Amino acid sequence: MISSVTQILFMAIGLLVAIDIHECAHAWMADRLGDPTARYQGRLSLNPLVHLDPMGTLMMIFSFFYGFGIGWGKPVPVNPYNLSKGPRIGMGIVAAAGPLSNLALAVIVGLPLRIGLPLPLLLNVLLTVIVSINVGLAIFNLLPIFPLDGYSVLMGLLESIGEPWAYRWSDALESLRAQGPLILLFLIMVGQLVPRLDILGLVLRPLHRFLCWLIAGF
To answer: So what's the pLDDT on residue 70?
Structure first.
């Protein structure tokens, strides 16, 4: 049996690793596309200390006592007008780099689990937690709601399509940008208070289970 303290510790490690690789990937991709802002501010690093957000860190510590992990990192500074692909498409690529890095890490960490290597119990649990958190962070961030990465990814895709209908959808999404955080908070709160109306859970849980099975076999 794994103690609750060990589980909380493993969740802390998993969240720190997931947020670290996520934010570093944003910074790396922005730098590759021509914007050095994040590099100049020391964000092109795998040092988790440079990516920790005070409120996000407090939320991680607080939520651990309730047996789950919620947290976020400090947003990576990006000047979209420096990006070689243009502001909207460039930001879409930079945004996509974060969730994709989490999925890539989940695949690497989950490989021993997927092929059934005999592992010590603690290591098996730690790898399982890291895979689960990285998959969860990736799919949650790909929701097309501002300020999540999925919003910028979708805006970039619509811009790249270049058709009139795509611009109409883009304008509609832009008009809802300011309400994005409230919409996201509303969906989260409704899911917590009225489980039968947990729209996010209905969308994310099956996808999370499928990807964890596909990547690591659990």
So the answer is: 59
Burial tier of 175 (Cβ tally within 10 Å: 0-12, 13-18, 19+): exposed
Residues with a catalytic annotation lie at 23
**Of 152, 2, 8, 167, nearest to 85 (Cα)?**
152
Residue ranges in the chain whose pLDDT is less than 70: 1, 55-72
From residue 214, alpha-carbon distances to 23, 100, 123, 127, 208 in Å are 25, 16, 20, 15, 10
* 99 contact partners, CB below 8 Å, separation of at least 6: 22, 137, 138, 139, 141, 142, 149, 150
**Which sequence spans correspond to the domains of the chain?**
4-143+205-216
User: What predicted TM-score, i.e. pTM, was given to this entire model?
Assistant: 0.90
Distances (CA, A) of 36 to 31, 49, 89: 5, 20, 17
Please list the alpha-helical segments (H only) found in the chain. Answer: 4-32, 37-40, 54-64, 87-114, 121-141, 149-161, 164-175, 180-193, 199-216
